[in-house]
Amino acid sequence: MKPSERILGVEGGGTKTAWVLVEVVAGDVDSGSQWTTLEQGKLPASNFRLTAPERLRAILAELPKEISRAGVFLAGCATEEDRCALREICLDIWPNAKIVTGSDRDSGLAAALEHGDGIVVNAGSGSSVTGRRSDHIERAGGWGHILGDAGGGYFLCIQALRLILREHDLHRPELEFTAKILHALALNNFDELVRWVQTADKMEIAMLAPVVFEAAAGGDARTIEIIEDGARVLCEYTEAVADRLHLLAPKVVLIGGLFYRDSIYTHAFRRRLKKNLPDARVAAAERAPELGAAWLAAEAREHTAFHQNPSQIDPIPKALVNTLTEQRNPRSESLEKMNPQTLVQLFIEEEKFVQDALRTAAADLARAIEIVTESLRSGGRLFYIGAGSSGRIGVLDASEIPPTFGAPTHLVQGVIAGGITALHRSVEGAEDEQSTGALAVVERGVKPADVVIGITASGRTPFVRGALARAKSLGARVILLTCNPSVAGIGDAGQPGSSIPATGFDLIITVAVGPEILAGSTRLKAGTATKVALNIISTGAMIGLGKVRGNLMIDLHTTSTKLRDRAVRIIAELTQRDYESARRLLEANDWNLRVALETH
């Protein structure tokens, strides 16, 4: 390796794609070459067998371009044909780089053992056991979620879902765990659960693993049994690999999301393995697999030291700490001492700041209505982009447009960091990746005719910043909705660290509601102001498209008893008919309110 070489390591699986960019720095004779981490991040899942080549190319295209070498190691990339196909995709993206490809088994082995002997047990959404002694490699498991992956997240979750339905079929008392699963998926009954499972992919099912582990940690005997069974299978594989390699006291390294420090799974595995391999030395991996991928790309033979870039130790930007929504509210510094009446009064009084902020932003909100209406009239679409509370508010407003105004579902779309899972529970780290936001915009097919509204209380959420920067580069009109009046600019998703000045936006809407009652909890005043702002923009645009007469909806979907009754009353009001006559007019026109009015 040469000093100043930039090496990209990529490890992809069924849950995420983790990457790291390192740079070789000069070392001394004793230590050899040393590396420092420049950048790192996560992108959507990239299992080679389960991800279409076009999608895989789009994911990898979000990674840094200026590199000397790349090691790309993905789950499912098992054969020489697979490695060649993956290499061709990579060469399209990095034509001048030296490319090394392979399976996530390879990168995990490198991260855990470098060139040493031992066994790596990987338990993520899938699972595998890989061992090495000198040049001899042995493997067990890892056959994919249909035939194998026993002991991985998908395996555990499928067992748990089968348990729920089996107990239901046998008319046994409902498990407490059943309610946890339904709650986690925002479902209401068994029929909905079955329909969800029939359409869910591997990753969506594996994402239920935290719910399974939470139930086991709470003492649920049946889920404990499922976890113990998963650990048993992984131990059997480990023992088989050790036997084939003739390792009596192997170093066993645990990697993957199910093995976190002091977890119930780690304890179950250690306890079972000690019975048949009492001299095994079990430890958690000290390096992430993506570093193993970079290490393999470098083809290092000397001792390599990994150094964390000090700038990445604290990923929270200093500017974020100083944003208005993160500051403490002097009027609420004694919340725990307030009685309920005083607390309620404080909340009500704070709402005046929401109204004041919206009044201040009135001209910008009116301009937003004009921009969105013009776009929709020209065949464009409206996208809301957000993370956490902001993302949920965007999805909520988008979901109400079709039934309220009879608009097609694609006309207004909500995009939330972390996807559908983030609608009903937190998805850790989903908002921290600019490249993921940029990719979301690309995959939604954003085009110049569209408008993209980024919603971020702080004005600095990386997912939103990346999405807006990419939308701008695609020619779409971009609007930033923020509660922070001191937004300086927006980072370009393709070039982390660069920025587009505030003048690069088509519009910035600032609703400065001030510090929250609960410091940093932007679901409060910021959330209320955001909800009202989106209501104003979307409703104003729909009025501009002619979907309202007076103050009545004339394109609503009559999909329920309540809505049919509302439609009848609207017809009666606008045509000066009695209720029954209006109902007959609607029935004669298949309950299409607009057609009924036009017929009249």
Look at the structure and give the mean pLDDT: 86
Summarize the amount of helix as a percent range.
Answer: 40-55%
Query: Unreliable stretches, pLDDT < 50, 5 or more residues?
Result: 300-317, 491-499
Q: Architecture of the largest domain in CATH? A: 3-Layer(aba) Sandwich
The gross shape turns out to be globular
The CATH class of the largest domain, by name, is Alpha Beta
- Class per helix and strand makeup: alpha/beta
CATH fold label of the largest domain:
Rossmann fold
Strand order in space, largest sheet: 5-4-1-2-3-11
What's the story with the biggest beta sheet? 6 strands, mixed
Give a count of the beta strands, DSSP E runs of length 2 or more. 20
Rg over CA atoms, rounded to whole Å, is 28 Å
CATH superfamily of the largest domain: Glucose-6-phosphate isomerase like protein, domain 1
Distance between the termini: 80 Å
Keywords:
Nucleotidyltransferase, domain 5; single chain; alpha/beta; Rossmann fold; 18% strand; 6-stranded mixed β-sheet
Describe the structure.
The structure is a single chain. The chain has 600 residues and is α/β, with parallel strands linked by helices. The chain folds into 4 domains: 135 residues, 2-Layer Sandwich (Nucleotidyltransferase, domain 5), CATH 3.30.420.40; 163 residues, Nucleotidyltransferase, domain 5 (2-Layer Sandwich); 221 residues, 3-Layer(aba) Sandwich (Rossmann fold); 47 residues, no CATH class. The chain is 44% helix and 18% strand. The protein contains 21 helices and 20 strands. Strands 5-4-1-2-3-11 form a 6-stranded mixed beta sheet, with helices on both faces. It has a 5-stranded mixed beta sheet with strand order 8-7-6-9-10, with helices on both faces. Helix 4 packs antiparallel against helix 9. The chain is globular. The protein starts with 5 loop residues before the first strand and ends with a helix.
